[in-house]
Structures are given as structure tokens and as C-alpha cells.
């Protein structure tokens, strides 16, 4: 563990290096390092420097606006926010997940499989594949999706088309590729018609085939340099995710499972409506992102990881055959019960992408998708909680309303928040093991970003820069005097 | 009196008692408007339908059609004036189309698209306006009120209730409720009233129904307001 690098003892005597902003992630963050005169890293932090305020400004709005308004948190995974909020407002109109009409349940699942598929494709191919295909310290001019398309046109194009397919699933169900409607309190506002279903069916076999190829690709990349990929940014942690009642991988609805670093189950099939008992959040002064932890373990050691690696580690099996075979293969490569490799997130992510493709194929043959029984009603309540497995991990939405249907309180624990300690720990690991004592250069600093990117953080969640993001490095001496600066402009040019 | 008038070089007929905007609509000619609605008494307040009649500016929704009238409705300057008026409406209230449940069914949004409004031009007022959610079935979001007076006319002329009025002047203008507490819950309004459905924006809404019409089936999803207004406006929402 590298927690000792969170806060240096005498920061005023150290020189500061910043990676600001971190690129090829969703949102805005920066990394700061404090180095002594021998370039030994004494402090490393990932700061989230933006503040969104959704929890505050949705107060005073009517509850039925929530799924449409809150999805604006993100341009990448809006469907996950849309559905988490929808699950919460289902409860406000007295509809529990088991009472949702089957058609609405399946349409929401289809919508969410499309979401996870497109988000995972976007992350792997557009944001991370440049690092994985060219090398972490490769020529920065190439390290972007355009470089991938130039040197690996088949891979790049498949990534673009996989993402496009996920977006088309979303469009068919919710009316728009980004920020549609669809889920309403107690159900859905439309079914799929035959033309829409047939449109999606025509390409699904190709999508499954490309998804399989992407799993093979990430496996090849990972295993071709196994010790490095298993060690880089790797930390041992607990894992939290939703799980099906039978222990299968679940993305839309289930109980919470927590396993510790050894693979022992700490919590199983836990009702997420009681999440406030399970998790608490800590605030630190140097970042806008909170630090959740398991209440039973405590603030120091109760942190955990969420997302694809957590879900694949936690589940007993996957209920689609190709993804299940890929999961078994993935688990076999590790000598430990739990796979702790941070770069293993990529592999796990693409196993999930394959699972989404298989699940979409299966759902599209379900006649319930075209049913007109779309909305259920029940006794109104004043509190609703919705939890879902977003692409980046477990996402909590919790709302309270007054007698006039107006939101009075909101609490959102976004997936990336749960990975906050873990991302900081990975940054500290890379800083200590790979950077400490060396002269820092842009390619070397990219290692920090590679560690963060593995988590696919959604820092805002609406913006990301591909490629030539502006970057300023400042080198200060032990007295705080600036020794050197390196500026990368948005046109890609460098200036000392 | 009946006869023909000319709108932008197009000769159209009119019948006795029609205003210019009514004659135009009958002939399939769109003149942008927000406070006008077929079947309602003219109000002439939004000024979007301002046209030149024989060289003089007037509201097409209040000015009677006359034989031989020469009306100029669409030229660059007039469209620019309409754009500025629409932009003023946007900055005066708080209109967030991305999350508004009226999006796709909103006449203000439809007019903005028709006028190719790409920004707000003016600084936002960030007006502090409240919501009245006290009624069990009907919600008023004052943030979206454009003071078109349609709810006032609907309640008075169609429902016979006088639930609404516009109070104040200029920047202090506001929609008020005729009830002992000033709250909608203590008024006579009911969900079946025309006043509950007539709002051209998302200021007066039926509760619990937001987003039930999917994208692709909303009023302006496939036809611009210039076509909808000439075809079906009298029919929808009434």
C-alpha cells in the first residue's frame, strides 16, 4: 500500500509537478506530484477539480423530471443515470422492481446493455487502445484514436462501429443516441416496433463477432507482457457490485455483494435500499470528489473498487456462454482468487462488452419488447432509491420528495467516486514504482494517466479531450523557485 | 366583408370578420405567434406576429383583414425583430429545453427553431421565480411563463372561472392565481379545464404525465411549427 504518499510531511520544501488536465478520461482532473531534490516522490494525488452541483439544483423540481434532468450529468453514460433515477422514481409511485411490467423491465435492460456496450467500446478503443497498442511511453503524436485508425485500421473501425451499434440500441429505445427519454415512473414510454427490432437484429451477429475479437485482442496485449500488466498500478482491494440472486453477473438490478482482497464474501445479496448503512463517505480538502468506504471496516481500510473488474471478480458466473468462457479464461490467468491487476480492468471491460452483445441478441428475440403493457402503478411514497451497475461501477441515486411531488433531498454516489481511493492508490503506486528518482518527461508522466484511465473514470461526467489536450508541467526547486516549465498547447506544439 | 389581400406577394382570400392571421392560417400561410390561438379572443401582446400593413406596423392577430390590403410579413428585418423578441423571452425566464417535459411540444421552442435561434444574444436575467406545486393534478412553473395571457383567457372565456390574471407591469409582471392563498390548490381550477392545457410553453403542466409521449411522437418532432400551426393547432391540447 502507498497511503503514506497521500500527504507529504514538509510540502513547502518540495518541488511540484502537475499533470493538468488528465487526458482521455471523461471530465476534468489533475495529478500533482511533490518531489524532493533527488526526484523521489513524496506525495501523489489525483484531484477532481470540477464541481457539478446536481444534488443541489434538482431540489425544488418535480420528481418525474429526475431521469431526464440527472442524465445530463454525463454524455457518455447518461442511460445509467437515467435508469438509476427511473428506478428511484418507480418507488415514489409505489412500483418495486419486481412489479415492473416485464416489457418495461426488458426494454430498460436492452437500453442499458446498449449503454454499457457503447461506453466500454468508447473507452477501450477511443481512449485506452492508443496506450495499449503503441506503448505507454510511445510517440505522443500517435497516441490517439486517429493514430490507431492509421496503423490498425481494422481494430479502430471495429471500435467505432461497436460504439455506434450501442448508440443505435439507445436510439431505438429512447428516441435519441444521447439524452433521450424512455424510462418514466413505473415503466417505459414506448415499446420497440418490428422495424426497430429488425434494424437492430441485422447487425448483431457481426457485433458479437467483433466483441469476441476485442476480448482476444486485449488478452493478447495483456498476456504478451504478463508480469508488467499484472503489476502496473496494481493494488489489492475489496470489490463491490450488484449480483443476480443466482450469483451471475448483473448490470441492471440485484443485491449488493462485497468480496475482500482474498475473495471472502463480506456482504451478499444486500438490499441496496439500505446502502446508507453499508457505505459512508469521507471528504478531503484537496479534491471535490468524496471517498466512500464500508462502514463496517472503517475509513482507513474500508475502501473498495467498483466497475468491470469488481463485477467479474465478484460474480460466480456469466449467463451468456461466450462471455462466461472469456471470464473463466480471465480468472485462470491469475494465481490469486481475485484478479487485482489494475490493467485487468480493460480485459474485464471487454468481457462485459461481449456479454452485452450476447444479451442484446437474446433480448431482441423476446416478444415482450413489443408489448403495450408498459407502465405499472402503486401507492405513492416519499423516498426512492435506485441503484444500477453503470459502465464504471455501482451507481446510487437516492431522492426524497414532499407532499407536492417536489424533490427535497438528493444523494448521488457516482461510480467513479467509489474508485477514488483506489485511483489515488494506483497513482501513488505508479509514482513510487515507476517515476520516483527519474527525470520526468511527458511520456513518463503518461504512465500516471494510463493508471487512471484503466478505471475509466467519469470525472464530470461530460467532457473529454482526445489527443492534443493542453498540458503544463512546472518544475520547482526545493525553495519553490521555478526551474523549468514545459507547456503543450492545444495544437500539439511544445514550448519550454 | 370578404375579398382578397396580399401577404408577401401572395394573394389570399379572407372572409367576413377574419383577422390577418386567421386569413393567413386558412390559406396555409404561417405568421409566427405565441399569444394567439385559434378560437380565443385576440390579445396582441407577444408582438411576434407584427406585420406591415400598407406601410404601417400592426399585430396580425388583432388587425382585421381588408380587401386590397398589402401585408408584408416576412423580410430580413422583420425576422430579425422576431428573433430578438424570442431571445428576450428566453432570457427573461428560465427555459432549460434539455430537461423540460414540454420539449418537442413547446411553441416557444418551435418558434425559436423556426427563426433559427442559435443563441440567447441577451444576458440572462436568471429570474428568481417560484413553482406552485400545491395542486394535486396541476403544476405551475413560473420560470417558463411568457405572459401570453392564454391561460387567463381560457379560464375566463372557456372555463368561466377566472382562475388566472396578470399582475404588475414591466419587469414586475407576473401570473397570479385567484384564490384566498394565492396558491393553485385553493383555486377553482380542475384538470379538465382548458386553462390547464392551453399553455404554449411548459409553465402550466398536468402532473405525473411528463415524458410519456416518446421522442418521435411529439408535436414538432417531424413537422416544424410553421406547418403544424397551419394544420392542426386548433385541435391539439384542447
Give a verbal description of the structure.
- By secondary structure, chain A is of the alpha+beta class.
- Among the domains of chain A are: 3-50 and 425-495, no CATH class; 101-230 and 341-375, Orthogonal Bundle (Cytochrome-c3 Hydrogenase, chain B), CATH 1.10.645.10.
- Chain A has helices at residues 54-57, 66-70, 78-92, 102-134, 145-151, 153-174, 194-224, 226-231, 275-278, 308-314, 321-332, 344-364, 415-418, 420-435, 442-454, and strands at 15-19, 29-35, 41-48, 183-184, 187-188, 238-243, 255-259, 265-270, 279-282, 291-294, 304-305, 383-390, 393-401, 407-413, 471-476, 482-488, 494-495.
- In chain A, strands 8-7-6-11 form a four-stranded mixed β-sheet. In chain A, strands 1-2-3 form a three-stranded antiparallel β-sheet, with helices on one face. A three-stranded antiparallel β-sheet of chain A has the order 12-13-14.
- Mean pLDDT of chain A is 89; it is low at 461-470.
- Chain B has helices at 20-26, 76-92, 107-114, 150-158, 225-231, and strands spanning 3-7, 10-14, 50-53, 56-59, 70-72, 131-132, 138-141, 164-167, 174-177, 204-206.
- In chain B, the strands form three sheets. Chain B has a five-stranded mixed β-sheet with strand order 2-1-5-3-4, with helices on one face.
- By secondary structure, chain B is an alpha+beta fold.
- Chain B has two domains: 3-74, Ubiquitin-like (UB roll) (Roll), CATH 3.10.20.740; 84-231, Alpha-Beta Plaits (2-Layer Sandwich), CATH 3.30.70.20.
- The A-B interface holds A 60, 62, 64-65, 67-69, 72, 93, 174-176, 179-182, 184-185, 189-190, 404-406 and B 98-99, 101, 131, 133-134, 139, 207-217.
